[in-house]
Design goal:
The chain is of the alpha/beta class and about 160 residues long. The chain is built from three helices and seven strands, in the order E-H-H-E-E-E-E-H-E-E. A hairpin with a 5-residue loop joins strand 3 and strand 4. The longest helix is centred in the first third of the chain and has 30 residues.
Length: about 160
């Protein structure tokens, strides 16, 4: 079983989601199934089939989260000696050299990655190009939309 690196906040988010699924979503869907079942003929009961499908999705997510938690290798970036280098869990402020736009990325594990929140998978093209670099370094990244060039402005361990 391969360990998956995850940040402390990523692990806490998973535990919160698991708690929500078990204590709120699961009882709701069981109630919805019972309600739909009381309407009689199950073959033509759309509510029943939709509720059963929702139940399967919830149960598979519970299994997936339990697996992720079991394989989690929690990395608390605030407790690692870092020497100013970009490492897993670090927040990296970069400037796009083509647009002059400044943006911060946090390098995280696969399950917590969310580009809308600037949480980047550390093995993604951007993540791989940043790992091991220092403030002031120039970084070139091949993305699906072409080559991007960044200057690392700051590296934080929060």
């Amino acid at each position: 079983m391969e360990k998956e690196p995850i940040t402390l906040s990523g692990l806490n988010d998973l535990k919160s989601e698991l708690e929500n699924l078990k204590s709120i979503q699961r009882p709701k869907i069981i109630e919805a199934i019972a309600e739909a079942r009381s309407h009689g003929d199950l073959k033509e009961n759309a509510e029943y089939h939709a509720a059963k499908e929702q139940q399967a999705l919830i149960e598979s997510r519970v299994i997936a989260i339990n697996d992720l938690i079991a394989r989690a290798n929690v990395i608390d970036v605030t407790k690692i000696e870092n020497n100013g280098k970009v490492i897993f869990g670090a927040t990296v402020k970069v400037q796009d050299l083509d647009t002059n736009k400044k943006i911060s990325y946090r390098l995280v594990g696969q399950d917590e990655a969310d580009i809308k929140k600037n949480l980047v998978f550390f093995k993604s093209p951007i993540g791989k190009s940043l790992i091991g670099k220092n403030k002031g370094d120039m970084v070139s990244v091949l993305t699906p939309s072409g080559e991007k060039n960044f200057e690392i402005l700051a590296v934080d361990y929060i």
